Amino acid sequence: MNDQTKIDQDRAERTEKLQGMGCKRKRVEDVRFTQGKGSYVDDLKLPGMLFGDFVRSPHAHARIKSIDTSRAKALPGVVAVLTAADLKPLGLHYMPTLAGDVQAVLAEEKVLFQNQEVAFVIAEDRYIASDATELVDVEYEALPCIVDPFKSMLPDAPILREDIQDKMEGAHGPRKHPNHIFEWKIGDQEATDAVFANADVTIKEMLVDHRTHPSPLETCQSVASFDKVKGELTLWGTFQAPHVIRTVVSLISGLPEHKIHVIAPDIGGGFGNKVGAYAGYVCSVVGSIVLGVPVKWVEDRMENLSTTSFARDYHMTTELAATKDGKIQAMRVHVLADHGAFDACADPSKWPAGFMNICTGSYDIPTAHLAVDGVYTNKASGGVAYRCSFRVTEAVFAIERAVELLAHKLGMDAAELRIKNFIKAEQFPYQSALGWEYDSGDYHTAMKKAMDTIGYKQLREEQAKKREAFNRGETRELMGIGISFFTEIVGAGPAKNCDILGIAMFDSAEIRIHPTGSVIARMGTKSQGQGHETTYAQIIATEIGIPADDIMIEEGNTDTAPYGLGTYGSRSTPVAGAATAVAARKIKAKAQMIAAHMMEVHEGDLEWDVDRFRVKGLPEKFKTMKEIAWAAYNSPPPNMEPGLEAVNYYEPPNMTYPFGAYFCVMDIDVDTGVAKTRRFYALDDCGTRINPMIIEGQVHGGLTEAFACAMGQEIRYDEHGNVMGASFMDFFLPTAVETPHWETDHTVTPSPHHPIGAKGVGESPHVGGVPCFSNAVNDAYAFLGAGHIQMPHDAWRLWTVGEKLGLHT
């Protein structure tokens, strides 16, 4: 073994010991989770703690004639009953939403959706509180309700929001009707209309991304404890963005922000559901301030599904214009967005429709126009980014279904049509027709790899034979091949176009190396299962050469963590991951000066080598980071302050744009409507891969939720506004029995502007998976002339498709 081989082997051994980026490091969080040692909000027990529960409306739209709390207050164990009349003098009966609207904490004069909060009972235990809610007597006068968003702005539509009916200027411009929230437009309408007027081929379809719900394993919860002596409030809760919650609580309560301590312990899933503020948070705070003891609120599953933030409910009239040979020339989309009773979407302030303008997708479409109208209905409010980045799932569903419809009309292969219209690698950075600058991509390479891996040509040949057999009556099974090639936009975001409540959407990291060389790092994000304690440590390990096992990651405590905008929309790695890398590099720069002082050389004479600085040309002369850490505390260079720590608030210069190629092979029994996923292949490109094992887990989880949304998951309402899917008896939550096998793959196209080239991956499989499943179903029936089949594609709905086509005998 020669000297260079020994050096290389030594370097490889030290790199492996670090367990840094690229390593399949096991999730450190799982040590406590798999042993039942996680610490969740409902595990919290405080002396004298009381419990709250809500009285909820049975009506979707009704006037409150009277509320009598006397019987509830007389129940032994009941301490207080709060109504809007109690909150109004404090200015707390309404709270601001992240979308610039206000939302009732407790209904005052009207209820606007079924199960809306009307009163808050506080008792000695949760069972007494629950019993007491049945003793609050509320007299209602039922009113006509609106559940169909297309009826919201009819001339005779009932006015829902009487509190703002005379306010015809909303947070995002003029309102057309008392039930109208906003109209948002982007793109060149005149040029787009001109292209459509002269196009060889056009398609137009109403594409509905139906209302569903994130449904995290743990419901929304909070514990508020107000110290009357200090005038300080401590609030524990299921918060995806703890610092934002602290700011909101300060704005609502009038308490100064430094007197509010927000703590998010372990969280059992979020998926966008735990970004905003809920009435339970406010009422637990008010209850603790008034009573001087801690108050806990924990919702049940029906409350979670029927009242907390929903997702989707976008009705998208989608059009494409193309040449006869399949070159897409323009896209035109109008969205009717059902926001429910209040506009409580968790979008950046300047984007009332989120990032819906990514709807041109992965294609070089020169001209486009998008218009979105948001309306009120008698449904629960929300519109959160359910495992996507601010309406990106809706946008990708629109373009990917539209491309399939265009391919069918042209008689072209759907994959070939996509390839013909892809943005080429040499076009990046690419400026889209609707205003985004895509950072990097290599779509053709990803698509070729995916098609070769699954044997796309052979699958189409098999499908053709099966269709012939079906037409001859030899089989009752249809074969569908679904394709989705998506580009997501994540990493919100640059201050020029992303803020929440006026606060720029930066994120933060604070890293401190102790004298003995171990590390504590605190972040402004908050994990809900993404594995931050594992992956952030890997970034730091690679950057500063200290093993990941010697690095502790903390999140969720606003007293200790630097201010950050939280975790959602796949922004943790693109923003906080970048902050982590930059903070680590600040430390490394100081460490280099200390190392130079220790070895009595100029810092320019040193080079970095995995976990140490060594003198150039003298590999045997070096100082490890652990040695440097000790020196930082006992013998730093003259005029240098001791210690080794850094903080970074990172504002990204651009979003990041992960992409992927997904293929689904599905077999559908026309007589039962049962669809079986034979194969699902998912190729993702998320730039630099920090931990391949965690990426695979994220992809599996996102695809499972995509499968749920596309194949059955839905929050339905009847014509009276009654929620039809408010329990797991009616709301499809796939188990291991129903969930298909996932086949994962990847390419790597780093982001050119991200410090480590990472793009984010947590949302991508959901974004790409939903249209892929839907395309598989639609492809199966396309040769029979079925037209577009709306989601969700459960067995009953697919049976009815066969019935309408006359396939049942």
Characterization of the model:
The protein is of the alpha+beta class. Helix content is 29%, strand content 24%. The radius of gyration is 28 Å and the shape is globular.
Percentage of residues assigned to helices = 25-40%
Q: Span from first to last CA?
A: 77 Å
Low-confidence stretches: none
What value does the Rg take, in angstroms? Answer: 28 Å
Largest sheet report: 7 strands, mixed
Mean pLDDT comes to: 96
Strand order in space, largest sheet = 3-7-1-16-13-14-15
Quick tags:
809 residues; alpha+beta; seven-stranded mixed sheet; 19 helices; 24% strand
Describe this structure in a few short sentences.
The chain has 809 residues and is an alpha+beta fold.
Give the helix/strand layout.
Elements: H1 3-18, H2 30-33, E1 50-56, E2 62-68, H3 70-74, E3 78-83, H4 84-87, E4 94-96, E5 102-104, E6 110-111, E7 117-123, H5 126-133, E8 137-142, E9 169-170, E10 173-174, E11 180-187, H6 189-198, E12 201-209, E13 221-227, E14 232-237, H7 242-253, E15 260-263, H8 279-291, E16 295-298, H9 301-307, E17 314-322, E18 328-338, E19 367-375, H10 392-410, H11 414-421, E20 430-431, E21 437-438, H12 443-454, H13 456-471, E22 477-487, E23 499-500, E24 503-504, E25 507-513, E26 519-523, H14 532-544, E27 551-554, H15 572-599, E28 606-608, E29 612-615, E30 618-624, H16 625-634, E31 645-650, E32 659-669, E33 675-685, H17 692-711, E34 743-746, H18 764-782, H19 795-804
Parallel strand pairs: 1-16, 14-15, 18-19, 26-27, 33-34
Antiparallel strand pairs: 1-7, 2-6, 2-8, 3-7, 4-5, 9-10, 11-19, 12-17, 13-14, 13-16, 17-18, 20-21, 22-32, 23-24, 25-26, 25-31, 28-29, 29-30, 32-33
